[in-house]
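We close this part of the discussion by returning to an individual protein. The sequence in question and its structure tokens are set out directly beneath this paragraph:
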Amino acid sequence: MTTPTPTQHAQQWLRDFESALEQRDIQRVMALFNDECYWRDLVAFTWNLKTLEGKDAIQSMLNATLSETRPTNWQLDGAATEANGVTEAWLTFETGVALGKGYLRLKNGKCWTLLTTMQELKDHPEPRGARRPLGAEHGASKTRETWLEARQREAQELGYTRQPYCVIIGGGQGGIGLAARLRQLDVPTIVLDKHPRPGDAWRNRYKSLCLHDPVWYDHLPYIPFPENWPVFAPKDKIGDWLEMYTKVMELNYWSSTECEGASYDEASGEWTVRVNRDGEQVTLKPKQLILATGMSGVPNVPHFPGAETFEGEQQHSSQHPGPDAYRGKKVVVVGSNNSAHDICAALWENDADVTMIQRSSTHIVKSDSLMEHALGPLYSEEAVKNGITHDKADLIFASIPYKLLPDFQRPAFDQIRERDAEFYKKLEDAGFLLDFGDDDSGLFLKYLRRGSGYYIDVGACDLVANGDIKLRSGVGIERINPRSVTLSDGSELPADLIVYATGYGSMNGWAARIISQEVADKVGKCWGLGSDTTKDPGPWEGELRNMWKPTQQQALWFHGGNLHQSRHYSHYLALQLKARMEGIPTPVYGQQEVHHLA
């Protein structure tokens, strides 16, 4: 007898799975899963972002959702593959209201991991491909309205005589990408941003800022970067792209606009959002409010004794204008993350005398090593040649449950540690405190757990290793004097400028500022997995807290993350919002409890 192919294995499993689901025979369904098993669902079954870990959790989810979801028409999408005893396959399916896509991993003929994602609402498809709009209005009409006239009318009406369904606070790449998805779904939306032009949030950062992630990882929805786009885009180029994108995607983007406060009326199911639009007071009444302020909240600015006596300048890294004014000055940079390294390097290039204060260990990974060993299989020119588009890569990465992600990541970072052993030794010889995360799982897990504590090296580490950037590690600031800082070991550093590269608080800090502390506490901490590692307290939650999914505050959502996350998860957030606008039932399964306030 011939051995079944990976595709035949996957087809047989999928047939059995579909049959058991159709008959609502959940015991038969569970017999198709390994004892160690994971089902990650993005909206399709749960109207949530939810990972079910183990048979009991999966069974409980199916008991609660199957009659409402009504899944059918499970199909393999292409040939399955097999490596190291694991069969992997793409699949498609339908629910009562949506079309879905998924990714399956089988071990010993049974399911190890399953990803299910909602891709499109059946009755509300995006106008793309064969459904694209005609554009021209053929024929003769005395009431003809041109495209420009329609856009001008919309700009005059929306927010004044006609209310948006959604208001997005924050017009960076996250808010812009989500607004583009909502626009394609015909959800009336206004984006609010305090800056004069789209992209200014990038333009206004320190002048050496570039993306540390490669271009294949960073596309926006609908319009990928062109093929000649640089691998690491400079901040002003990104700013210009965002401004162009906002125009081309026809977004209702209110620049020079600050939100002065917001409150929710549960009786009417409506927000009251008070804004100052370039000096004009406007009140908006959306049904849904989205905070798209990045993955970070309000800047963390530590207060040290004597700070008020300092005669030089003090600034958070988000306020740092760049090195030009500090040539010949003595600068102390508090922190050892991406921003700290970038700022220190630029200051050194401009002949400042700069010292980095490293208070705790930092994960360092060289950019080229990260691209080759960690990102390359999914996000690279080679991956594109192998047929892995960024959309496909997003789903493959999403198919790995967060519980398993350390095991998937550790081998790549073990290779990096071995490849760059000499580089790391030079840093340690200079006194730099290194780590690879609490469990040696590397960059991505540190980012997901705490959003801090790492640097992707694009050159600053050599300056630290050879002493061009001076380093004081394992110490903090004891007090600030008029022209110096005293460190916790009793030593003193002269200073004309202190830069606090000390990161940001949780995103719910913006909810506290804009809405109320009560609402911020109600939704709780944003970001982190509950891994019980440094700065990510337990209990285990299995998904990023509060991101792109329903929160404990009705009609309040958080959207952010890096460009990859903003691109991918804006799709699922937009579908959740569209379904609510259209009155489609959205029973949320497994809404997370709040364990931490900030």
Remarks:
- The radius of gyration is 25 Å.
